[in-house]
Structures are given as structure tokens and as C-alpha cells.
Amino acid sequence: MIQNKFDQETHTLWSLSLEIKKIILVGYFFLYCKNRWQSVKKE
């Protein structure tokens, strides 16, 4: 019973970390594109 609860919490944490990684990747990609766009506009 306790083991099952532990597994559920681990799974929840794992899902959260995956979501956070996705958000970071998207944010990083967005910033990268924005910087590229600004450098293109300057030229």
C-alpha cells in the first residue's frame, strides 16, 4: 500500500519535470528565434 502511494508520487514528480522541461525548451527556442530575428533586422 505504502509502496503504491510512493510510486504514484514519483510518477507525478516525473510528469511535472517533463512538463517543466517542455516549457523550458519552448521558452529557450522562442528566445533564440527572437534574438535571431533582431540580429537579422539590424543588418
Describe the structure.
The protein is mostly helical and 43 residues long. Helices cover 95% and strands 0% of the residues. It contains 1 helix and no strands. It has one helix at residues 2-42. The relative contact order is 0.08.
Q: How many distinct domains? A: 1
Globally, the shape reads: rod-shaped
* Uncertain ranges: none
Structural class: mainly alpha
Query: What percentage of amino acids are in beta strands?
Result: under 5%
The secondary-structure element order is H
Evaluate the radius of gyration. 19 Å
Distance between the amino and carboxyl termini? 64 Å
Q: Fraction of residues in helices?
A: over 70%
- Arithmetic mean pLDDT: 90
- Describe the sheet with the most strands: none
Q: Care to count the β-strands?
A: 0
Number of H/I helices: 1
